Amino acid sequence: MKIFTVAEVPEELAQAWLQHLRDFDTAHPGCHFQVVADAPDVPMAKAVELIKIDPPLDFTTLLAWTPKDEP
Fold it and tell me: What is the percent of the chain where pLDDT is above 90?
């Protein structure tokens, strides 16, 4: 089963939310999460800090774009 969730999370809670997902993922080996974050106002360095959780994510891709790249 796939469940799609969109969460609007204040920046100060973003890392806690990601840690919550990771904790659930770790506790239930049959689960797998794919997370996409849309945070155009967050500097790249801050975004990298927000995704530092324990245990670390298995794979991370960071995509940066400027408004001119949007459709």
Answer: 14
Report the C-alpha gap between 67 and 55 in whole angstroms. 33
Tokens found for residue 8 = 């609007």
Q: Count CA within 13 A, CB hemisphere, residue 58.
A: 7
Q: Are 44 and 64 in contact (CB under 8 A)?
A: yes
Structure confidence by residue, pLDDT tens digits, 42-58: 887 887 787 788 887 76
Residues 6+ apart with CB under 8 A from 58: none
Region of residue 38 (phi > 0: left; psi between -120 and 50: alpha; otherwise: beta): beta
